[in-house]
Write a structure and sequence with these properties.
The chain has 397 residues and is mainly alpha-helical. The chain is built from 19 helices and no strands. 75% of the residues lie in helices and 0% in strands. The longest helix has 31 residues. The protein is elongated and about 140 Å long. About 2% of the residues have low confidence.
């Protein structure tokens, strides 16, 4: 296709150049006619002087003027210069277009790349989806984590591993192990522990169980969504079709296999629904214009995010009685806890939940949330710092 384009471009430029060249009016004949005319005038002046028609003074004056005009006419005509410049410009522009096209294609093009209509791109994406590398291979290609843990913590986790060797069906123990292995940066071990949890629960495994499995698989693979992780995400959506985090991951999978148009469909819907407490929403809002262009919707305008409480809301809360304020805080804590469990959130939101639970005197629940948050953000030192600060202020261990 590119060869046809360049050939057509060259032919078009050649045709235009030739037409303009032919239409550039020649001026040589007119210059010669002017020279012949002034020469004949000089001859006429000689005859008029010989017949006594004009005086010697008049003859000299007229002869000087005609001679001046003759000399001027013999010089290069300005129009001829303009035509010459036009021809030069035409040739220069034509040559620049041809060379520019060649250089641009040599830099950016792929001469051996065939045409890629939509059907071919879809087929290629399907093939990439089917032939992408496995979870095990991705784990081999992912560098190990470098989380630093104290010796006491390492010893406790080792005791847990040892205990579970004799209690292979201990669901609670394997759930705890998956969380602790994540905190230590042992992503593959965390994945295996969560796989054990799902295996023990069998048909009773929930959407959250499979979502945790998918997340551990993705983390263990360095962010890559393997066929095994995709299967886990499908099981999440079978149990919870509207799960935001699973849908976000499916959108990322589409981008991974070369279908940004489907990524746009999934992510734009998440934006329209608005999940303000989901950590991935800021990422989607930042990236969606690029995916809109690739999906053929360059004029897409993402919906505005839902605003937080107004000044009137804050004022109204301040005027509540102590009992009503506690009730409101209870509702906010329950809502925030449910959202974090369902869709995840930022470290600051987890820290806020820890602090709120501590204010309500629920130290054990705050400790459980802190432990869970450390598992979620095991590979993010800055987030762990935020969580630790909140835990210290809440008096947790």
């Amino acid at each position: 296709m590119i060869y046809l384009f360049i050939t057509t471009l060259c032919l078009a430029i050649g045709a235009v150049t030739w037409a303009l060249w032919r239409n550039a009016a020649p001026v040589a004949d007119r210059v010669q006619a002017d020279v012949a005319f002034y020469k004949s005038q000089l001859q006429g002046l000689d005859r008029d002087k010989a017949r006594g028609v004009i005086s010697n003074a008049e003859f000299e004056t007229l002869r000087a003027e005609v001679a001046r005009r003759l000399i001027h006419a013999g010089k290069q005509n300005p129009q001829q210069t303009a035509n010459t410049l036009n021809k030069t410009l035409i040739l220069t522009v034509g040559l620049f277009c041809v060379l520019g096209s060649g250089i641009t294609y040599a830099t950016l093009g792929q001469y051996d790349m065939p045409d890629q209509p939509l059907s071919a791109r879809v087929a290629q994406a399907d093939q990439e989806r089917q032939n992408r590398i496995s979870q095990a291979q991705a784990e081999q290609d992912t560098p190990p984590s470098t989380v630093v843990a104290d010796e006491a913590h390492l010893a406790l986790v080792q005791q847990l591993r040892t205990a579970l060797e004799s209690r292979p069906n201990d669901i609670t123990g394997h759930m705890l192990l998956a969380r602790e292995e994540s905190r230590l940066g042992n992503t593959i071990a965390a994945k295996e522990a969560q796989q054990r949890v799902v295996g023990i629960k069998g048909d009773g495994a929930s959407a959250m169980d499979y979502l945790r499995l998918a997340e551990t698989q993705i983390v263990a693979a360095g962010g890559y969504i393997s066929p095994e992780a995709e299967d886990s995400l499908k099981l999440v959506l079978q149990r919870d079709p509207e799960n935001p985090l699973a849908r976000f991951r499916i959108g990322a999978l589409y981008d991974q296999i070369g279908r940004p148009d489907l990524t746009f469909q999934v992510w734009s819907r998440l934006l329209e629904e608005d999940h303000p407490n989901a950590a991935f929403m800021a990422f989607i809002r930042d990236q969606i214009p690029t995916y809109a262009v690739m999906a053929g919707a360059p004029r897409y305008q993402p919906p505005a995010p839902v605003k937080g409480p107004t000044a009137e809301d804050v004022s109204a809360a301040a005027n509540l009685s102590a009992e009503d304020r506690i009730t409101m805080i209870e509702g906010m804590v329950a809502s925030l806890g449910a959202r974090l469990a369902e869709t995840g959130g930022t470290a600051q939101e987890w820290a806020r939940l820890i602090t709120s639970l501590s204010v309500l005197g629920r130290q054990q629940q705050a400790q459980a949330v802190f432990d869970e948050a450390q598992s979620v953000f095991a590979s993010d030192p800055s987030a762990l710092s935020v969580l630790t600060d909140a835990a210290v202020k809440a008096g947790l261990r």
